[in-house]
Design goal:
Elements lengths: L2 H23 L12 H31 L15 H23 L4 H28 L16
Helix pairs in contact: 1-2, 3-4
């Protein structure tokens, strides 16, 4: 298996865990996702967030190595990219990490900053989940079995 393929699906798994645990903490409206166990959702979210940050660093390091090696090969499973959905993923990831770190570190000391970070984090979650649904829809062509071309008979 290709390294970028493994990173892609690890990323998808960790993002799914973060989305589900995060949405469960967004309020009673979505608490059913984790059976209203907000404390467990918080622990799961924090552990998954650490893995998410580590994966981000690995992907960035992988990209830097590719740039230094002048590797121009197209990697269809790459998480980040210079344009399109890869760039969107990179930007949203950085915003998630910054706001998440702020929430984690300053929840008890900076109420206004935490409130703003929570608001950005939550709204960005809805946008990212919608974009993942779009991404899956747009990539379904990769899951279709290639059709054999009919040979024309004379």
């Amino acid at each position: 298996m290709k390294f970028d393929f493994i990173l892609h699906w690890l990323w998808a798994l960790v993002f799914s865990i973060l989305a589900l645990s995060g949405i469960a903490m967004a309020g009673a409206k979505y608490g059913w996702v984790m059976q209203y166990d907000i404390a467990t959702a918080d622990v799961v979210h924090r552990i998954a967030a650490i893995v998410y940050v580590l994966l981000t660093l690995i992907v960035i390091l992988y990209e830097i190595i590719r740039i230094l090696r002048r590797d121009k090969t197209i990697k269809p499973w790459l998480v980040f990219g210079p344009s399109g959905y890869g760039l969107f993923t990179f930007i949203t990831t950085l915003i998630f990490i910054i706001t998440g770190a702020f929430i984690w570190l300053f929840m008890d000391s900076d109420k206004a900053g935490t409130a703003l970070s929570l608001w950005i984090h939550e709204k960005l979650t809805y946008l990212a989940v919608a974009s993942v649904i779009w991404h899956i829809y747009m990539k379904t062509h990769a899951l279709k079995w290639p059709k054999k071309k009919m040979q024309k008979t004379k």
